[in-house]
Amino acid sequence: MRSAGMIGGLGPESTVDYYRSIIAGLRARDRDKAYPRLIINSLDVDKVIAMLDAGRLDELADYIAAGVESLVRAGAEFGFIAANTPHLVFDEVQRRSAIPLLSIVRAVSNYAKALGVKKVGLFGTGFTMRANFYPQEFERAGIAMVRPKEEEREFIHRKYIGELLNNQFLPETKKEILGIAQRMKREDHIEGLVLAGTELPLLLRDSGNADLQFLDTTVIHVEAVVDELLR
């Protein structure tokens, strides 16, 4: 089996979810290969948020690229970032990396294209919802992407940073966010919703339905990682 390197810690709860899900995915494919060589470099989420708040994307790219370099030195043959927002600087980090990196954005775009959806919504941190890296990738796949209204984006971001990253998954927050999703279905006619924050599935997993599919970015990315481990 190949060796994978994971940039984690952004936040810690989703890193745990990734690790468990990768092992479960391998066991589902082949029980004899249920113990991956997975090297984890857990970075400081508070430091990353401070860089994002200040718009210091060059510094963020430096920080993550250095994290990838340590994975390479530890023997990783390919890598991935277990978070959506740091993909703001994915292209620059990949340019500097000595190993290939699996993009969560590309994996989710390919998945949505295979589903045949034509219009999806985008939930994530405020940084992700404001940025263009998801809409541009989906546009290349022929899929329109809709963002929530500004006040909704502010609410989701506040709950994400203040609650989800601190392992707080409250029923009232879930109800409010699901209400935003339903409004977008009614008014924007979205067919799916990209949960482009790896803590969001921990709050909303299994809340989608036949009328509105939730694209769990963690699950989709993990499947791509398992594919690569077994390649």
Structure description:
- This protein has 231 residues and is an alpha/beta fold.
- It folds into two domains: 3-103 and 220-229, Rossmann fold (3-Layer(aba) Sandwich), CATH 3.40.50; 105-217, Rossmann fold.
- Helices cover 54% and strands 16% of the residues.
- It has helices at residues 12-29, 45-53, 57-73, 90-96, 104-115, 126-130, 133-140, 150-162, 171-188, 200-204, 217-229, and strands at 3-8, 37-42, 78-81, 101-102, 119-124, 144-146, 192-196, 213-216.
- A four-stranded parallel β-sheet has the order 2-1-3-4, sandwiched between helices.
- Helix 10 links the parallel strand 7 and strand 8.
- The protein is globular and about 50 Å long.
- The termini are close together.
- The mean pLDDT is 95.
Summarize the structure.
With 231 residues, the protein is an alpha/beta fold. Helices cover 54% and strands 16% of the residues.
